[in-house]
Every structure is written in C-alpha cells, then in structure tokens.
Write a structure and sequence with these properties.
The protein contains eleven helices and six strands. By secondary structure, the protein is an alpha+beta fold. A four-stranded mixed beta sheet has the order 1-2-4-3. Bound molecules: zinc ion. Zinc ion (ZN) binds next to helix 4 and helix 5.
Length: 258
Amino acid sequence: MTDSKEMVEYLESCTIPDGCVIGKLCSLSKPFNDFYSNERGKVKSSIRWLHNEKLREADQILPGELAEMCTSSQENVSIIIHNNPAKISDAPTIAHEIAHVIAKDEGYPFIGHYPGCVDREVIYLCKNLGEMIHDPLVIKKLLSYGFNLQKEYADDCVEGIKAIKKINKSGIERIRVTFFFTQLLLEQDLIFEDETNPCYEYIQKLGAEYPDIMAKSREIYRYINQIGYDTPRKVRIIFDKIFEIYPNLRDLTEIYQK
Ligand SMILES: [Zn+2]
C-alpha cells in the first residue's frame, strides 16, 4: 500500500480506535487482560485495527477468516477484524493476531508470496506454509494464558476439511494440504492432552483418504518436532528444509525476517 493522501484517508475511514479493541477486550476477558499486560512490551510495530466491512471488497479478508494480520512495512501492521467494538468471543482471535505481530517483531521468519502474485492457489499455499509453524507457535503462547482453544481448533478443522474436500487437487494444492495436515498434527499435540478429541477422527479419516499426503505430513511433523520451533533460527532451518523437499517453492515465496 502506498502512502498517498487518498490511501491515508481510506485507511482512516476503516480504522477502529484502540480502545474499542484492546480496551474493550481487557475489560471483558481475563485471559486477554493477562496476555496483553504481559506481552504488550514485546509489540514493537504500531498496530492499526481495520473494520472488515468498511474495506473495499478486494482488501477484505478471505472467506472463513476470523482476522488477519497484514504488514505494509516492517514497523506498521494492520489487523483486519469483524466487530466494532470487539466482542468477548473475539478475544482469542485478536490475541492470536497480536501474538503473530510479536513473533514478527522477535525476528521469526515469515513466508509471503512473490511480489505481484495474483494466483489464489499460490497465495493460499504460502499462507499455509507460514501458518504451519507460526500458528502452533502462537497457540502455545495463548494456552499459557489460559485461553481455551479447543473450539477454535475444532472449527478450523471442520472449515479446513470442507475446503480440502471441495478442491480439485493440483500439484500446488496437494502441497498446501500437506502443510495443513502438518499444522493440525502440531496443534493437536498442544491443545489436547491425548488423541481422544473430535479432530483426531477427522485427521484419521483424511489420512485414509489421502495416504500419500498424510505420510508426507507426518514426515515433516517429525522433522519439526526434532528441530523445535521456539527460536527464529530453528524456524529458518525448518523453512530451508521445506525448500529442500519442494525446491519449486523457492520461486513462489519470499521470506521476510526482521
Ligand atoms: Zn494465525
């Protein structure tokens, strides 16, 4: 996004004041208040809250997304959300996006698509590759503040799985689904004590339907657990390994790191 006068005015017209997001959630949700009090010092970027329904259609978040972080520069971040003022049910989602900002500010590498890319399949692929590591990282942090994320996880599974079933799996889609499965496996370990959860069954069923994809996901999952993903350096090693497995991804993606 450029900084033209027109753009500044447009963004202003969609902006939600901090008090209607942070202030509101701190008063509504104890886990959010604990999270924000402890973590706010780690947020180096300035965050602008944008109201999805006020944005032009092309700028709105993808269907099914609860919120999304977009970076226009290293220091500025916009987070697109649905409710103004925020509601208590938004607390985990908004804490989730803030935790992504913290990971960026701490120097964790992020994956984006190549500049100017308009191919939806590629955009989704890059998003899933990044989220495969970043979402478990964020979830681990949120759980430590007492957020209950079981429902979010179940909803994500159901949505993700619906999407998987709808698509005609091209080469790129197959890789994307591989990353999605890997993410589910990593998150399941964090959110549930054991495999007796509603999503385990889904994962098993999908695994039976797409055994080659599931085998690859399990291989990546084992590799990630072996390396760990709790420092920017380890995450970089994991992304490099992914590029070794899928060399074509190098041309489709960009890595951003502070
Ligand atoms: Zn996320």
